[in-house]
Amino acid sequence: AFWIDVAAQRNATAGDYAATITVFANDSPSSNVQLNIHVWDFQLPLKASLPTAFSLGKTTGDGGGATYVYGSDYETKGIEQKFWDLLLERRIGMTHLYTTAAEDFNAITYWAAAGESALQLKRVNTINHVRDSALATLVTQMSAAGLFGMAYVYGFDEVNSDMFPTVRDVFNEVHTRYPGLRTMTTAHDASFGTSPATSYLRAAVDIWVPVTSGYNQAAANQRRAEGKDMWWYFAIGPNRSEGYINIMVEHRAIEPRLVMGLMAYKYQ
Fold first, then answer.
1. pTM, whole model, 2 decimals?
2. Residue 15 φ/ψ region, left for φ over 0, alpha for ψ in the -120 to 50 degree band, beta for the rest
């Protein structure tokens, strides 16, 4: 069995096309297969309607480890650019979630031009992260380029209640210094700022991101009615042993399409 991946140019003329695929291997005869292609008479919007944040970790400290596979000079080899294009061509949002350095504006404009619809500017876990002059410069650049409406900052990855007061203080600082800049977190508050004990997070957090097993449709509807938002995420878990889909190679290949398509549509 083999898989043929076909894509149409955005300016392709609608109609039927045929191609011949030659399959060959060492010490084996080649084989020709006719590939019939139908191009429909509509064009998908370039800008993704589903905002996503797929983090490309450069090092282990950045939540990834591309250096394990490609070496520390993988950026100069052009491999990072290939990762960007691989994601963006499939309407997956490129970001670096786990670095506290402000994102490169040139990279952001490249991603936006390729259709990315949500742009992380920086990870913020402290007041000093918010007061970083590089972030201030980036906010100014984003505003001038008309991209500020898609911008957010991320912080407090999977923290528990002992960190909630710090979440409030840091995110409130973001809102004070950069009005309109959204804040995003995966902090573990199952009430999403509605319980008496965590009500002070209600105004501080703009985008709540629980794992898929913790997603709450009623709470999501309520947050959105308030002008906030709720995404979801998965990482090492939850996985199929818990009854949830994931994108690991051990899972069925249809699952990434479900989570980006029908599941996202069903749960709004």
1. 0.87
2. left
